[in-house]
Design goal:
Length: 619
Amino acid sequence: MPLAARTALAYLARPMAQPPILSWENLGLQQGGRWLFGHPDTKGLDLHIGPRDRLALIGRNGAGKTTLFKLVDDRIEADRGTRKVKQGTRIVLLQQEPDFSGYGTLMDFALGGNLPPAAHKVEAIAGQLGVDMNTPATSASGGERRRAAIARALAQDPDLLLMDEPTNHLDLAAIDWLESWLDRYKGAFIAISHDRTFLKRLTRATLWLDRGMLRRKEIGFGGYEAWEEQVYAEEARAAEKLDAKLKIEAHWLERGVTARRKRNQGRLEALYRMREQRAAMIAPKGGAKLSLATDEDFKSKSVIVAERISKSYGGRKVIKDFSLRIQRGDRIGVVGANGAGKTTLLRLLTGEMAPDTGKVEISRKLTGVMIDQQRSLLEGDVTVRQVLAEGGDWIDVRGQRKHVQGYLKEFLFDPGLIDTKVGTMSGGERSRLLLAREFARKSNLLVLDEPTNDLDLETLDLLQEVIADYEGTVLIVSHDRDFLDRTVTLTLGLDGSGAIDIVAGGYADWEAKRTKRRLPSARKERAPAKSREAVSSPPPERKASKLSYKDQRDYELLPARIEELETAIVKGEQILSDPDLFASDPQKFANISQGLENARFEKDAAEERWLELAERVEG
């Protein structure tokens, strides 16, 4: 069927733009004696969610993102405002830390709640996620609990899905599955996540909760950081014009965000240079070696040397014949599915566990700090001052004496929180406080096991900066693809068979290597059986497929059409970025929304069509 006809039929099948399925108008809430948002002296928050919205909810830890979810889900009452929900709308909240108490098994948990799903739906989703729902809830791991919570949420067939850190504790395979499910999902969703890759792939609009205000812009998360910096720059200019010294001082954190990102761009360039150097060091035999360093120099800088190490559990080889020299200053990422052996590899490399065969030599000068994914979130009745400085005013930060309030600012805290009890802080704030304490310790080896869980985006930028400036060696286990791409020089990829890829670069480099390896294998599987004589003769040269007149015209004209659609999409998103548009002119809002949906659909179809033709042309 011609592209135009397919597109027209698809338009007829798609619903017209509709009014919001949920709205909050003039929303205000007090928390702990203060207005979290919607102070009576200002207008409250306005929130309108459409039936097909794909929204990222952004805001630093403590801004009220999880609280806003509870208000949307009607779990807590607001102090002001009006909540409207379209009749029959099914709202489901996937919590960051669901309460499993009182449930015998994961299946008992999945079938509980206000909207219990059908057991067969839960079992179908759980099977695809690879979790045994008969596992006792009390002994289930963080990853098993997260999968059970996802199965429970998705099986309820929500019209509006609220996801609070959905990728926490998931391995890469499970994240890929969830992304695919959400890509096909017909309802609306809002996602709170530190996983930039997840948000970039799935979201089409962004809600930004900042200092008690909620902004919306019709751009996916990919455009959020530029928007954020633009807003902060405009605020800074306005403050300077008013000569409002106190207001400028109140923005020290916001101004720091922009400056930090600019500094991190420079750090990324340095990281790329380090990757090039590291690639030369692990080049195959006969390949180029760095002219900057001799073999002796390379060996003298080695802090951990693993030689042909292997480790088995119950007859299964988790690590097989692995060798690696880790140098001082290396930033090494470890990736792979849950159960592939990532933690085992860390324990072998740090000397916590002995290999079955082979040996690991560790520099005697190596002193490490480990922050693991099971880290305690600190006791609730102690203060920030007690956590960092044992009740005093000064803290030793890797041998340098600093005032504890100044050190708090380095980790994006208001210095006024110095005597705040830890129990009143959000989970993300407590994780950030723990990072501040651990990074202060004197060490030359950092071992970070899932360090990005519970952290907001600003803290991730800070963590990137701290790791880049750290003079020692860093080992990082993480499923956060974007974070690895921004921080590591080497990636160790485990596939579960015992083999480990060593790739200079981050997650994207490892994924590219895996894709390249799979392509020849796939071609080989598709190829027909050949005789011995045919195998010995050279294969015939592949020829490009000849296109019909219609195909040729599509191949030539579609790139320009795709560019036109991209321009139209940007223009439509800019118009819809006006937060008052829906209230002032709902028909215009509906028309532009529908046009935007149509343009996106046609662009996707056009790109798919052109890629199909390009593959035929290129043979």
